[in-house]
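Protocol step 4 of 5: obtain the predicted structure for the target chain.
Materials: sequence only (see below). No template structures provided, no constraints applied. The aim of this step is simply to have a reference model before the mutagenesis design in step 5. Sequence pasted as it appears in the construct record:
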Amino acid sequence: MQNDKHIWDGLKRGKEDSLSYVYHQHVDFLFFYGKKITGNENLIYDTIQDLFYHIIQNRQSLGDVQNIRLYLLKSFRRRLFLALEKERKLTGLEATHEFDVTFSVEEDWIKTEETSRQKEFLREAMTELNEKQREILYYRFTCGFDYQHICEIMSISYTSARQLTSRAINTLKKHLADRNFILMLLFQKKKKK
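Step 4 output (structure tokens):
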């Protein structure tokens, strides 16, 4: 695994292998992240291409980057929201940026569940979260970003990020505990042993 700073410096100096590496390492991540915000795949592809075109055109004036994924995510997110707003103005439709998070833990649970009732409990619990809560949990647990990076992405304070995460987790715990979901999971694990 190459050092992000070294790769970014190569990209800024015009090394094609550095640009290619950055693109291929992050394009799928950006696409799937975009799918969490909008179902318009063409807009997502266009926004990714626009981002990399901007990087190529301005590579010599780009600042230093310690974490390429974080830099790309922030830039892509900003560009995608601007593109969605522009699209909304052109079509006159109401803007909806519903952040759709599917956690890998959730996917594992859903794949191993034996009943549709348990799947529904988990889906219901996720709907109890607001958009910002789903978004912050995605960054924290799916992307593995620390709070400092999350603060940069979402433009919120460190305290707000911690509180938002805590409230989201507590909401999930409460909703799942109300449905005895955790007890069902524990019971299933004991049965399988």
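Step 4 remarks: The radius of gyration is 20 Å. The CA atoms of residues 9 and 64 lie 8 Å apart.
Proceed to step 5.
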